[in-house]
Amino acid sequence: MRKLSTSDILDLWERGARLHPLDRALLTLNAAIPEASPETIADWPLGQRNRALLEMHIAAFGPRLQGWSTCPRCEEKMEFDLDARALVAQYRIARNHSITSKSLAFRLPTTRDLAEIVQNSNLESAPYELVRRCLTSADSIGDWSEHDFAALEEAMALADPLAEVRLSLTCPVCGKDSEETIDPVSFLWSEIEARARLTFWEVHAIACTYGWSEGEILSLSPARRAHYMEMVQA
Question: Where are the domains of the chain?
Answer without folding.
Answer: 6-93+164-195, 98-159, 196-233
